[in-house]
């Protein structure tokens, strides 16, 4: 964040310097246009052409400088874009980690369900064995009771 701030401050300073340079060039162009009376002695056609060429050159310089002032904004946008891309990349990485954890948890849940079903089936088998054993014990008791009654 501090690097982006430093870049922004540097770009603001550069923009201000360029604004001052544009103002100087505009003032210089204005001062060069006024002494036309001195150049008229050379020939009106030539001095007018020279002035037009000079004005055109200065206008081009001004446009060039003005276009350069867009640089700080673009650099700031680039820094913000880079920061946003980094955040997106971090979020994608975190998302991948969470998806991995989710798949691991789903596997664990399935394993736990399968284990519960196995335990439930085993408890069912044990209950059946107990029922059979109880039935056999009950028959054995009845048989012993009959023997005891039959014995003198």
TrEMBL record:
Residues 27-48, 63-88 are annotated as: Disordered. GO terms for molecular function: G protein-coupled glutamate receptor binding. InterPro entries: Homer. It comes from the Eukaryota. GO terms for cellular component: cytosol. Residues 74-88 have a biased composition (Basic and acidic residues). Keywords: Phosphoprotein. PANTHER family: HOMER. This is Homer scaffold protein 3. It comes from Homo sapiens (Human).
């Amino acid at each position: 964040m501090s690097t982006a701030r430093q870049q922004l401050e540097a770009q603001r300073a550069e923009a201000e310097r360029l604004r001052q340079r544009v103002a100087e060039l505009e003032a210089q162009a204005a001062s060069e246009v006024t002494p036309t009376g001195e150049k008229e002695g050379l020939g009106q056609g030539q001095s007018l052409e020279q002035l037009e060429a000079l004005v055109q050159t200065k206008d081009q310089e001004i446009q060039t400088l003005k276009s350069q002032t867009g640089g700080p904004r673009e650099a700031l946008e680039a820094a913000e874009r880079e920061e946003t891309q980094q955040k997106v990349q971090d979020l994608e990485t975190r998302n991948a980690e969470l998806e991995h954890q989710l798949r691991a948890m789903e596997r664990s849940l399935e394993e736990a369900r399968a284990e519960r079903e196995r335990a439930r089936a085993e408890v069912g088998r044990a209950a059946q064995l107990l029922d059979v054993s109880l039935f056999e014990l009950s028959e054995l008791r009845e048989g012993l009771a009959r023997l005891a009654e039959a014995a003198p």
